[in-house]
């Protein structure tokens, strides 16, 4: 569906973007409780519509953090000397400025870390104390979406601050183990029809 957003820009929305096309039997197997499917879709959308927008303002929050982030990118990306120098300094300056625009666009607090902390603590609270993951004993697509967004900060100051100042650490470490060991729910073997 095409519509016009608050800024007057035309955008395309996909109404079934978070919906899995499953038969009734498959739906019951994947989502033993009816509210699990809606909960998973809600948090996947939250990861796309809110959480992901907290990354750049937090990773490039200060000039020092922007330089450290690009130093990490250059080091891990194995850039050449000239390309690395250019990427680090020009990239850091550009992303520092862009992150300030994103902060305003998404109405973030002056201390953007507080928005990040609140978001991940809201996520952990939604999982609750009686589940290891949003999906129960195994990660579901919402767990994977949130983990993917947070993982991009690993190795940076924003990630270290988040781990030290929120309750996300234990869930995040369980997700690391689960993804390394491929512990997500077993895939459905759907018949292919032509």
Automatic annotation (TrEMBL):
Residues 72-194 form the GST C-terminal domain. It comes from Amphilophus citrinellus (Midas cichlid). This is Prostaglandin E synthase 2-like. GO terms for molecular function: prostaglandin-E synthase activity. One of its GO terms (cellular component) is mitochondrion. Pfam families: GST_C_2.
